[in-house]
Amino acid sequence: MTLTFPPGFLWGAASAAYQVEGAAQEDGRTPSIWDTFSHTPGKVLAGDTGDVAVDHYHRFREDVRLMAELNLGAYRFSVSWSRVQPTGRGPAVQRGLDFYRSLVDELLGAGIQPVVTLYHWDLPQELENAGGWPERETAERFAEYAGIVAEALGDRVEFWTTLNEPWCSAFLGYGSGVHAPGRTERLAPLRAAHHLNLAHGLGAQALRAALPARAQLAISLNPAVVRPLTDKPEDLDAQRRIDALANRVFTGPLLRGAYPSDLIKDTASITDWSFVRDGDLAVIKHPLDALGINYYTPSLVSAATDNDGSPARHDGHGASAHSPWPGSEQVAFHQTPGERTEMGWTIDPSGLHDLLMRYSREAPGVPLYITENGAAFDDKPDAEGAVHDPRRIDYLQAHLAVAHQAIADGADLRGYFLWSLMDNFEWAYGYSKRFGAVYVDYPTQARVPKSSARWYARVARSGELPAA
């Protein structure tokens, strides 16, 4: 049976600046933490860097034409902070802003809505040198940066996201160290999480001050679907602990203006949370016009056993001797059963339905968008140069079907952004994992739409999901 999405449902695709732009040293851009991290031996697979990536900086017009051919209604991209404000403070570099002005103009000219993400993990290195996200000043600098970008693009961009996946910035960047800046500490991730929350609140204030009233403000989270291995009390407690660190550390202050009491108790041996100052929580609980949800796979946890001890295993976030779960390092992670992608992530669309219904309940009246969803597979051109990826089509079909079901079940879901538009630099995995609907031949930078891109184009054009 064909499933029809509501009129006006937004069909898009997403990318991130460091993953696609390249031009790492052009037009005044200075290093971000990901430039430093990727150039540090042993941090990124095969020594890959984002210096060139897929050269979107120079090829954006070609890429927008491709988006139009794929019937995209929206393109979600991030702004490189160090391209706009190289030291993370002070006046903007107009050449950097000009790139985003030109990109937005090109999108609008093609009838594609630009959706701006202000921060997708690429902190200017100078701000990290001053302490990074564990320091309060970084949140204050983010608000200044948000205002600069809003002044430059606010007359043409109506949909704004402050942060993408702050959990990764805080806990993978400062806890397990598998993401930039690669620090492995216990207190720093908690301080970073709070200052990222504060950056969202201060940034939202700056955006509201600079943007027309019609502008929509959002944040994109990667909430975890945390399931217990058994219904034993100790496994249910493991679930609660990880839910606090993965989800409620952000949604507590964002939606309710308070950090969860159990999270504070779980982390009492690490911090008294005195870095949370009077007035911070009111700033963080800034009214949202939309909530972005990124989903890939669920998590399965239990209390530690003799075979599954600390640090966490199978949590899907890269191998490290250091845990990204401060205060709950004893929780064991297990491989969920089922077919897996090239990332080793189990394909389980039910988790997406769970999230959409959860945040429909927890954020009533706030429209939801799936701002990332997709899969990495080992895509290769055939003898004729075509790239067929039926497993990705099956993945998208299944996840869009549960998204449609969530709408039927009452979720106010307004749009879906495929991750990702093109194959690109996949963080610590370098160029080894291909998430794109468009294949990129990295030596030549040639773009080849995969069969999934053509399939998604038909869905985006009709608003209808064909029967599996």
From TrEMBL:
It holds the Pfam family Glyco_hydro_1. Signal peptide: none annotated. Keywords: Carbohydrate metabolism, Cellulose degradation, Glycosidase, Hydrolase, Polysaccharide degradation. The keyword Glycosyltransferase does not apply. Its EC number is 3.2.1.21. It catalyses: Hydrolysis of terminal, non-reducing beta-D-glucosyl residues with release of beta-D-glucose. It comes from the Bacteria. InterPro entries: GH, GH_1_N_CS, Glyco_hydro_1, Glyco_hydro_1_AS, Glyco_hydro_1_beta-glucosidase. PROSITE patterns: GLYCOSYL_HYDROL_F1_1, GLYCOSYL_HYDROL_F1_2. It is an enzyme of class 3 (hydrolase). Residues 306-331 are annotated as: Disordered. One of its GO terms (molecular function) is beta-glucosidase activity. SUPFAM superfamilies: (Trans)glycosidases (SSF51445). The active site is at 372 (nucleophile). Belongs to the glycosyl hydrolase 1 family. This is Beta-glucosidase. It comes from Streptomyces rugosispiralis.
